[in-house]
Amino acid sequence: MKGKRRRQRTTLLAALTLIAGLGATVPAHADDPAYPFRDPSLSVHARVTDLLSRLTLDEKISLLHQYEPAIPRLGIQSFRTGTEALHGVAWLGKTTVFPQAVGLASTWDPSLLRQVGSAVGDEARGFQQTRPAGWGLNLWAPVVNLLRDPRWGRNEEGYSEDPYLTGAVSTAYGTGLTGGDPDHLKTAPTIKHFLANNNEVHRDTTSSELRPRVLKEYDEQAFKPAIAADAATGVMTSYNLVNGRPNTVNPALDDTVRTWTSKDLLNVTDAAAPGNLVGSQKYYGTQTEADAAALKAGVDSFTDNDTDSGPTTTAVKTALSTGLLTESDVDKAAGDVLSIRVRLGEFDPGGGRYGSIDASVIDSPAHRALARKAATEAAVLLKNDGALPLRKTGSAAVVGPLADTLYTDWYSGTLPYAVTPKDGIEAKLGTSVASTEGVDRIALKDTATGKYVTAGTGEAGAPLKETADSGTDSQFDMFDWGSGIVTLRSAANGKYVGYNWSNFVNDQTQPNGWFVQQQFRLERQDDGTYLLRYAGYETSESWWSNPVYLGPTGTDGTLGLVAKGQAAHYTKDVVRSGVDEAVAAVKGKDQAVVVVGSDPSINGREAHDRTDLALAPSQEALVKAVHAANPHTVVIVENSYPTTLGSLQKEVPALLWTTHAGQETGNALADLLYGDANPSGRLTQTWYRSDADLPSILDYDIIKSDRTYQYFKGQALYPFGYGLSYTTFAYSGLRRVGDGYEVRVTNTGSRAGAEVVQLYTHQRASRDKQPLKQLKSFQRVSLKPGETRTVRLKVRPSDLAHWDVTRSKWAVESGTYDVLVGSSSSDIRARTSWQVKGETIPPRDLSKLTRAENFDDYSAGIALVDESKASGTAVSAASDGAWLKFADTRLGAGAGEFGARVAGTSPGTVEVRLGSPTGTLVGTAHFAGTSSPYDYTTVTAELSGAAKGRADVYLVLSKDVRLSTFTLR
């Protein structure tokens, strides 16, 4: 359909030209409202075609950068892609802040997500009258990258480890953002980050290797639903490579993504990614080649060089002059950009359908109420031994490092107000409660000088220095965030200490910023002293060649960065014990609430993965001490990723998890703790017992490495879909009806509550390895005590298809499928079997040209690589003896010749074996080497008489051989 629309646009352009030539009336001024591109009664494509016809080539090229300049002669204003709107409008000031994305998904409530998306879309529109810097109606949200590894630093930005759930909630959120009108856009959401982006370590140079089944069944399925439902208007390319090719030039942008919808899409690059093609990735020699390749692959808008569009437009013009691009390539991309701008109502009278929305919608009472509802539904009750709900009478204490603060994350708006857990509980009880953060207050004394590290007393703080002052000015509250990282908050002014590229100053309300300069490590030495190490910019790409430490560098004792050998040795004097304070606060109280968790700027963030999933040691010790002092202790874990939780899961009577949930966090938690709301959130990821349950974060093959609930064979701490309630539910009467199943669900408890009814399937027998369980449908249902409702869950035979690598197509196999319905992936309450009539996948026919990537199994040392820079995937061997398996191959009366397309700069071989990697050798193809990894040649080998019958065929490669396609004939 895409090609058809392009032809229609060209035809209309010719028609308009002809009409003009025949003397038709044409407006005298290009910004006249009667001009065709300003006529809302015309189709989007007609308007785009008209506008394209009026632009010069330079003007069309100017539309291809993030910052599109105004075109005054046509009365067109400037346009900017990329307003962040992950869980509220970000970076534009005070706006409604909803729970982080992983929390929104934990509601399992698409209806709510659509409402939240609509509110965020309204607030983005609310800025349109003033158009502040950084504002635009192309929103970069939602993030649909699958959370297959909970150590990913950006875990809070995604929704789930499951593509079906991710598709459902992203479609709902995106529909809210767009407004749901097929012809008019409230905003234009762009889903991030295409494709297979789930690690931050070396994120611009690592390759996510996706065998076809993982690509088709898993990663693409997270992106397709929102695009197919017109709930998103394009994708953002990710920094990483897929199968050796940077996603900035991934041909799937056109070849796959655009096939999911009949609408024009606006695809953008991530910030500075085009420059990476020449820089860190070294994929192209010049920016001209790189930008031309990106445009050819399906990128429409380049996010590069900040506001300076010059390098991009120069590269495109050079590509045109050298034949790397044609004007039709520019027209295609510019047309995609303009299509979105037309649908946004930019050229309509009054700004179109949504042009009247103003700033009154921002942080409106309705949005505040919605934020509270979302924060309430997002929380997940992990454990409850009868401790919850709490009584609203008696004394209470709220302690912990997150008891009386709300942290904001990188992609967040400014909180218009903050209801902390302590605030919410006090409001609920109508009285003040005992509270402390439970962190140690320390002083650091230089053992060589006897002087103390001292901070400034004013609001703006001052550079840290060593002085003889041993009072409050030399005291710091030390927060432990795990993995050895601490932050220091000055007792002198309540501000955090951070590095400002010149000095260490106590001037920040919270840890923040891209580099999060407020991080330190206290490294204990053998003599009992400590070195204070700066950890604010410790990455594998650090500007510092070696670890750096603090020590006096000025004549006045001002602290600066020094090498380890010059670092000051400090005694750490505990002025006040956080544990002792917390214990004192909770002793004798009827209720003790401990709030622990993460700082989203520290415990994993963009460009930084987590190294472990444990709660910070000091926080775990705090919980244990509080529980020992008061058995009526409940624990709130406030972070945005699964946590191993150590022994706490067994010891404390109640655990409630919430993501960082925005301005209404405290009210939502109080509603849940005291029973005014019934917990109904469900986990969207597997919570593992140990980091040892996870393979390398760079291993993307969830099938072979048994990742996510679909394939994980271990015992989870908490399974996917898990969440408790204050009431109970019973299931009965599961049966197939029409295009799905129905089941009766009854609230058998004494409280109203919401159950998330989840339907999973399992294929009992298959040619290929299948998931242990796979979510196919779900529905959230609210029930009063004693109420029964029939829940209908849609699942069709076509939903059971998996990708058949033998024929590169979707296939539904005939056989028996288990249908499992319940409260989580491991709590199945009703089950039945389903006899499905599909097909039988035939034996492989390797006499046909077979792509090497379509293997059934492989060994260590096999890598998926780019066949060429433009398209295709090949297989490469990192070591001698690496092998590929092609199962159940019909060789018939005998195959006589093996032929293969191979590349590589070193000589090598490809062995053909039967039965196993060391099985019968039936042929060896010898390879002399080619001029480059992209220079393929054909090699052949005669096969012995043993190459017949029906067998598993193994191709065994020598080191550095690249194999693209092959045949056995």
Automatic annotation (TrEMBL):
What does the record list as GO biological process? arabinan catabolic process; xylan catabolic process
Q: Name one GO molecular function term.
A: alpha-L-arabinofuranosidase activity
List keywords of the entry alphabetically: Hydrolase, Signal
Which CDD domains does its entry note? Answer: beta-trefoil_FSCN_BglX-like, CBM6_xylanase-like
| UniProt cross-references to InterPro entries, sorted A to Z | BXL, CBM6, Cellulose-bd_IV, Fn3-like, Galactose-bd-like_sf, GH, Glyco_hydro_3_C, Glyco_hydro_3_C_sf
Q: Where is the CBM6 domain?
A: 847-969
State the function annotated in the UniProt record: Catalyzes the hydrolysis of a non-reducing terminal alpha-L-arabinopyranosidic linkage in ginsenoside Rb2 (alpha-L-arabinopyranosyl-(1->6)-alpha-D-glucopyranosyl) to release alpha-D-glucopyranosyl (Rd). It is not able to hydrolyze alpha-L-arabinofuranosyl-(1->6)-alpha-D-glucopyranosyl (Rc).
Protein known as: Exo-alpha-(1->6)-L-arabinopyranosidase
- State the organism named in the record: Streptomyces guryensis
